[in-house]
Design a protein that fits this description.
Layout: H1 9-13, E1 19-20, E2 25-26, E3 33-34, H2 43-60, E4 69-73, E5 80-86, E6 108-114, E7 116-125, H3 126-131, H4 136-160, E8 166-168, E9 171-173, E10 179-181, E11 195-197, H5 201-213, E12 223-227, H6 229-235, E13 242-243, E14 257-261, E15 264-268, E16 274-275, E17 296-302, E18 307-312, E19 318-322, H7 324-327, E20 334-343, E21 347-348, E22 354-359
Parallel strand pairs: 4-18, 8-22, 12-15
Antiparallel strand pairs: 1-2, 2-3, 5-6, 7-20, 9-10, 9-11, 12-17, 13-14, 14-15, 16-17, 17-22, 18-21, 19-20
Helix pairs in contact: 2-4
């Protein structure tokens, strides 16, 4: 007996005529492609992927922000946030028998900060996107993340730079380690072959001592300092330095943390300020012209909740990517990728909790002002 079975081969073939891909629709049998239409697109999925890449890359580069006191700003509540703190009382005085003492005044003070919006973008041509060997959008996303982090870091560090709570590192005779002078400004600091205004364990101890005398509270029992790699180079040669790997198993480690000295944990940050000889961003001020190049560095020492950052609802770092069908003009000729965010930079809440220690380094002659 012969059984005849009819197969509709076209029924099976249809499953390959329209295959969804990340770029377009494709016919698996002849390779013919069809562009996404406005109703059916993978741009949402791709956007999520690229958005994650940007945010993760930005977080890797952020050092100052991890020590800020975050203050939320709900939507539709303006642009300004107020931080309030109670005033402290004086110590008690000796009582006189039968006499009611004079009471103390009690109140509070406040600090305010306002947000501004920042952002940038780049355009990628359709030809570059289609013909380049590498994923151009992904590469641009990674670089945008680095740009976002550097922008935020610079805004925070520049806001902290205005604080007047400052120490200047002693000028040290390099051959002997003896103190050759005590600068009172950046203009009197030195970085020659024989004398350098150097960050030393003694200066770290002085900074920590000042914070303690000012009754600055610690964070988890420690103070924290954000230091430029060029300054950290000089400090890490000390025998007293404790490398981070020696205590990392028992404590939370912060982004960029490299070690500890005298009860202060150090975070290395390439965005830490490099300034001109007068302690500004100018490289050609009057005292600089006829003097050896003596760039100075600012190392920030922090206590707990020293400064605040506003966390605006709806204004956090946002990745914005538009494919060529959305932003490419009448001929779909380019895609755009960018980011925007709102921030106050930083608002110093307690001036005594932000101590700026100015120094030179072994790299003062070659580093560039940033």
């Amino acid at each position: 007996m012969i059984i005849e079975i009819k197969l509709n081969l076209q029924r099976f073939a249809d499953s390959g005529t329209l295959v969804n891909t990340t770029q377009n629709y494709v016919n698996a049998y002849n390779g013919q492609t069809t562009s996404f239409d406005s109703a059916n697109t993978m741009s949402g999925e791709l956007k999520t992927f690229y958005d994650t890449e940007l945010l993760e890359n930005a977080r890797v580069e952020m050092y100052y922000a991890q020590f800020a006191k975050k203050q939320t700003l709900p939507a539709n509540h303006g642009r300004t946030v107020e931080w309030r703190k109670w005033n402290t009382f004086e110590k008690a005085s000796k009582l006189v028998e039968g006499v009611i003492p004079t009471g103390q005044k009690f109140g509070m003070s406040s600090k305010t900060g306002s947000i501004e919006q920042y952002g940038t973008y780049a355009s990628i041509s359709d030809t570059l996107e289609m013909r380049a060997y590498d994923d151009v959008i992904l590469g641009a996303t990674e670089e945008m993340g680095a740009s976002a982090a550097e922008t935020q870091e610079t805004l925070i560090r520049d806001a902290l730079l205005v604080n007047t709570n400052v120490l200047y590192c002693d000028n040290i005779t390099l051959a002997t380690g003896a103190v050759a002078g005590t600068p009172t400004s950046c203009a009197t600091m030195e970085a020659s072959a024989t004398v350098m205004s150097k960050m030393t364990p003694v200066m770290v101890s002085k900074a920590v001592t000042k914070l303690k005398k000012d009754r600055v509270p610690t964070k988890n029992g420690k103070y924290y300092a954000v230091i430029h790699p060029s300054v950290a180079f000089d400090l890490r040669n000390s025998e007293e330095w404790i490398e981070v790997h020696k205590y990392s198993a028992t404590q939370e480690i912060f982004n960029g943390e490299i070690g500890e000295l005298h009860g202060c944990r150090f975070i290395e940050n390439p965005f830490a300020p490099i300034l001109g000889v007068a302690g500004s961003s100018s490289t050609e001020d009057d005292s600089y012209v006829n003097k050896a190049r003596t760039h100075t560095y600012a190392t920030y020492f922090f206590g707990n909740d020293a400064f605040g950052i506003i966390d605006p609802e709806g204004g956090a770092l946002e990745m914005i990517i538009k494919d060529k069908s959305q932003a490419g003009g009448p001929l779909n000729q380019f895609s755009t990728i960018g980011y925007k965010f709102e921030t106050n930079g930083a608002t110093i809440l307690y001036p005594e909790r932000v101590l700026r220690v100015m120094s030179c380094s072994s790299y003062s002659a070659i580093d560039e002002v940033n």
